[in-house]
Amino acid sequence: MSFDTTRTPDYSPLVVHFTKSREMVRHDLIIEGDPLFEHRQASARDRLVSILSNRIIHHSPMNFIPTDRRAVCFTECIWEALRRLADS
Length: 88
Fold this sequence. Notes:
Number of domains: 1
Distance between the termini: 31 Å
Helix content: 10-25%
Shape: elongated
Low-confidence stretches: none
Radius of gyration: 15 Å
């Protein structure tokens, strides 16, 4: 199936998960034995390689959730918005 972004510029077939090279949010809640422990301070590249090799995205603590609950964040956005988000 092909997708023409010029005909539907407000819709995207892409679902995106970003990785960044910085200490994980709420890293204090990621203790030894947690699947994310080795990735707490990993580079974005190392995190991406782990996701692609293991085919797993682990949920992690989020700073906008008031408890120690965890989440995986994805975004569905058009290409132009994706480029802007990636630059931020």
